[in-house]
Design goal:
The structure holds two protein chains of two kinds.
Chain A lengths: L3 E4 L2 E5 L4 E7 L6 E7 L5 E8 L4 E4 L2 E6 L4 E6 L8 E8 L7 E2 L3 E6 L1
Parallel strand pairs in A: 2-11
Antiparallel strand pairs in A: 1-3, 3-8, 4-5, 4-9, 6-7, 7-8, 9-10, 9-11
Chain B lengths: L4 E3 L2 E4 L5 E6 L6 E7 L6 E7 L2 E4 L8 E4 L6 E5 L8 E8 L8 E2 L3 E5 L1
Parallel strand pairs in B: 2-11
Antiparallel strand pairs in B: 1-3, 3-8, 4-5, 4-9, 5-6, 7-8, 9-10, 9-11
Classes of the chains: A mainly beta, B mainly beta.
């Protein structure tokens, strides 16, 4: 059974720092991996989707990498801002058409 | 609509009552997913549809939970004889196809069972 773990559970940084969020999964036979952002009391917003054949994806200050063989992904946030404060969730699915399995998330707080 | 719409946004009910939660996916999206999220946890898969049929309902916790999507668009999650442990945020998501497409989530329906 696929399990997704995110470390750390919470992170506090001052504005301007670069930071890395970690995601690991137990079954490396994934179809794709997706990173989401969730603000308090809100739904999830998709940030980046990495297909299993890809190694990384970039969007603005965000860069997500995927190492399928080791069962790991990282989300790199450059030059963090207070508006980046949210919970970041990682999710994987095992094959096309199967449901995403989520980690518990990392709650990020960026202070000004 | 522009995004996934869920109603009601909040529902408070008494133990033992019947509840329906509605999801209106992005127009043209054939795949629709229901998840449940408890405080401090990631979303937990319940069921997903491809068109009108449930492609995988293995996440439904028991037979008190049921979901339909009769015309391949709007979906309703139905919970019978609600229990306090059913209290959570119920999230709906849609994607263009089932083939590993990007998921778009609604704001969720917060269910509180007293």
């Amino acid at each position: 059974k696929q399990e997704v773990t995110q470390i750390p559970a919470a992170l506090s940084v001052p504005e301007g720092e670069n930071l890395v969020l970690n995601c690991s999964f137990t079954d490396s036979a994934i179809y794709n991996l997706q990173w989401f952002r969730q603000d308090p009391g809100k739904g999830l917003t998709s940030l980046l989707l990495i297909q299993s054949s890809q190694r990384e994806q970039t969007s603005g200050r965000l860069n997500a990498s995927l190492d399928k063989s080791s069962g790991r992904s990282t989300l790199y946030i450059a030059a963090s801002q207070p508006g980046d404060s949210a919970t970041y969730l990682c999710a994987v699915n095992g094959q096309a058409g199967t449901a995403l399995i989520f980690g518990k998330g990392t709650t990020l707080s960026v202070s000004s | 609509g522009a995004g996934v719409s869920q109603t009601p946004s909040n529902k408070v009910t008494e133990k033992g009552k019947y509840v329906e939660l509605r999801c209106d996916p992005i127009s043209g999206h054939t795949a629709l997913y229901w998840y449940r999220q408890s405080l401090g946890q990631g979303p937990e898969f319940l069921i997903y549809f491809q068109g009108t049929g449930a492609a995988d309902d293995s996440g439904l916790p028991n037979d008190r939970f049921f979901a339909v999507r009769p015309e391949g668009s709007v979906s309703t999650l139905k919970i019978q004889r609600t229990e306090r442990g059913d209290s959570a945020v119920y999230l709906c998501a849609s994607s263009l196809t089932l083939a590993g497409g990007e998921l778009f989530f609604g704001e969720g329906s917060r269910l509180t069972v007293l």
